[in-house]
Amino acid sequence: MFRTILRISPLWLLVAGVALVLFGGAGSRFSFGVFLEPLTDEFGWSRGSIAGALGLAGLSTSVLRPAAGWLADRYDPVRVALAGVVLGGASLFALSLVRELWHLYALFLLLGAGFTLASPATLTKLISAMFTRRRSLALSIAGSGSAVGETALVPVSAVVLSLSGWRTAYVVLSAIVLLVILPVSFALLRRRSEIAPEPEESPEERSTRGGMRGGTRCEWLPDEGLSLKAALKTPVFWALTAGYFT
Question: pLDDT (tens digit, 9 = 90+) per residue, 131-147?
């Protein structure tokens, strides 16, 4: 098994590290529904007031994503993402100690902020910078970490909750994030500056790829990307913005 891992290209280990970070963030956030009924039963809070905490986390995510992208541009995206994992994991542990409704709101705000830093807003640029020929495949594999996290961690939370209670379930989620996902993803991502990017496409390959896609390659898009001011002038930016907003 270890020999097989060692034979895997460092580029794909990088993709695995990104997928693992997204796995923890999405799985932890979307486990909220499992905790709704036990919180209602123990504290007598209404479902609406509890669900408001999740809404606040979603709002913080929407507001902070541009800031997360800016931080990833200005600083090392790996450090930004791993700092988000630490904040998210610590918030999960603190949720096991909740006594008041405002505790829930404050911690979900921190949880949303943490996993926003450890989101595609910071990590997809890392993949795009390392891959050319297989960029779409690499981004798809990395992004699948979110879906796998939702599929895996929500049932884990439900099982632990049914056996030991909701506080223990939050502790277990925190342990998974801080003791498993954080060190493993750090090991996979920390040497990314030493990894050689995938070779650029030759003009012949680029021409063939453009022809296969009906000549839709964006000749106007510079290799280093667009500034925000320039992106605001393109219809593609507004189409993506409208889709994500919806």
Answer: 887 888 888 999 899 88
Tell whether the torsion through CA atoms of 132, 137, 142 and 143 is positive or negative.
positive
Distance CA 69, CA 84 (A): 13
Instruction: Kindly state whether residue 1 falls inside one of the protein's structural domains.
Output: no
Number of domains in the chain: 1
CA-CA distances (angstroms) from residue 160 to 51, 57, 96, 164, 171? 21, 23, 13, 6, 10
Number of neighbouring beta carbons within 10 Å of residue 181: 26
Query: Dihedral angle at the C-alpha atoms of 86, 67, 188, 193, nearest 10 degrees?
Result: -130
Question: What does pTM read for this prediction?
Answer: 0.80
Q: What is the DSSP letter of 93?
A: H
| pLDDT digits 0-9 by tens, 218-246 | 444 555 567 778 888 898 889 888 887 77
Tokens 């630490």 found at: 86
Whether residue 74 contacts residue 18, with contact meaning beta carbons closer than 8 Å, is answered with: no
Using CA atoms, how far apart are residues 172 and 193, in angstroms rounded to an integer?
A: 33
Are 118 and 82 a contacting pair, CB within 8 Å? yes
Whether 237 maps to a domain, the answer reads no
The answer to whether residue 239 is domain-embedded is no
**Cα Rg, the chain, nearest whole Å:** 20
Q: Which of 186, 3, 197, 158 is nearest to 84 (CA)?
A: 186
Under 8 Å between Cβ of 200 and 134: no
